[in-house]
Amino acid sequence: MNKEQPYFPSNSFIRVATACPEVSLADVPANIDRIAEIYESAEEQEVSLVVFPELSLTGYTLGDLVQQSALLSQAENGLQELANITLERHAAMVVGLPIKVTNGLYNCAAVLADGAIKGIVPKSNLPTYNEFYEGRWYQTWNQANTTIEIGGQTIPFGTELLFDIADTKCGIEICEDLWVSQPPSVKLAEAGAQIIVNPSASPEQVGKANYRRDLVRLQSSRLISGYIYAGCDVSESTSEIVMGGHQLIASNGNLVNESLPFNDQKMMIAEIDTDHLEFDRRKQHMATVLGPLVIKTEITRQQNDVLLKIERNPFLPNETTEERSERLQMALRIQAHGLAMRMRASHQESLVLGLSGGLDSTLALLVALETADILGKESSDMIHTLTMPGLASSEQTQDNAQALAAALGVPNTVIPIHELAEMELAALGHNGHDQDITYENVQARARTSLLFNYANKHHAMVLGTGDLSEIALGWCTYNADQQSHYNVNASVPKTLVRHLVTYLAEQPRYKTAKVTLEAILETPVSPELTTTNSENISQTTEDIIGPYELHDFFLYHLVRWGDKPAKIAYLAERVFADSYTQKEVNHWFGVFIKRFVQNQFKRETLPNGPKIGSVSLSPRGDWRMPPDLYNSALWK
Description:
The protein is α/β, with parallel strands linked by helices. Helices cover about 40% and strands about 15% of the residues. It has a 7-stranded mixed β-sheet, covered by helices on one side. Strands 5-4-3-2-1-14 form a 6-stranded mixed β-sheet. Strands 18-17-16-19-20 form a 5-stranded parallel β-sheet, sandwiched between helices.
């Protein structure tokens, strides 16, 4: 791969932080010191935006003290003092304080950057129920944006403000605003806000942290945005309620970082990939409506590395054991129910698949068994497997195939293709010795021809086995293993195929096949189309086209996120540093791009198959690409 321009993390990622300082109620100078200390630490760690909790300058649990003129004056002076701290710094901060506007008092969040107060946003929804009594002290701002004067500075004030921080538009809602049926963040996101900031003071209750986490995560998903939630510290007054300092940062439905309640963590840092937010917004036609005032800051992104955890295997579930099992079960259910529906719709009573002793056909067979249960059929009646040893087949894989069928109680027919392949090669005038592409593909097409003809004889349908990674790379023979009546593995990448088979091998239902399944998992991936006259497997796929874990990483970031090549290579170099050199990553990325572009014509005629996850290459669904690209210049 030719990286014409170097990639910098700051091109894509904005580093943000939540802060949870200890609070001294009604002691503005003490709170300024603590806020300033955390802010300076955040700035040293190349954070572009740090968010402090609701009313962090004065404390939230003030009660009637918030009406005191002395406190309000101290808060305004303190806000100016904190603004001065941001002069010639590379981080903006959001702090909370009460602000008096004419005869009203408002619960506000102020954005400070470039040595100035950039704007102030009042809270839209005031909780006045249960333990809350904000309506006693504060008013709701329901007017258009205006300006107010603080220390001789004219400052934008209102709920329709956006702040351009490090080339990222940020909107603000405060605590209760998130909990109502129509959060302000919806309109802010529609107006272009990529990140929503929420300074909060949400008391803890049993079970509330889980609900709060879901709120933040799901709101970020609905809005295709980042969401930064900063909760108040436990040092707030506990006369009736207890704060826990819950800190949350989410992005597009994913929890990026979290500091649990009562964790005593004073600052939490995370990164949000704004490229990914923009990509999904483009894809989902999330148009920007005009309206809010956009306030520009001089903050720029500074980070030279990525703190965000980059998943080495993005297609694999990374949750707890129980959640991982649920996700894997869901993938299998989608495959099995998709196949069941196709069999019902086509009025087919049985199916046939080629059982090679490899991972893909093993998973397809296990899915077929699940399908038989759904249809209420005996698997031994519904499923036919063919094992078709050829000119390069090893005893290892053929033995595994036959042992697996026997262990699972499904019939297996062995049909050698040596003579068929040799006859066709002879008819083509091939010498039968040169192991070229003709030699390989004659075998692949002989197997597919047998499967379809066997299906005709037994009124069955041919079950495809090729996986998403092979489809992406074009590692399949056109009009051979590329074709079937239905392919249950069509959107399952190779890394997930291995994970699913490993998972199923541990299930009680398949205990009789566990030894064979483990043997298959240990067998190198191979098409077995050429041989060195050895009893062992002599053609290893990953030696030819590269490691599947790399290719699946490339595929995910290219198709799911539309990432630039330099970014993909940078992330791969970083996450696979313990396994591959930079030169190796770039080499295999070049191989991936070349094969991905050149083999779109094979994807144009793919059979139907169920969509499992967020990436699919179906030409009728997720991926429509011209098959006639002259080269891969787009991804150079």
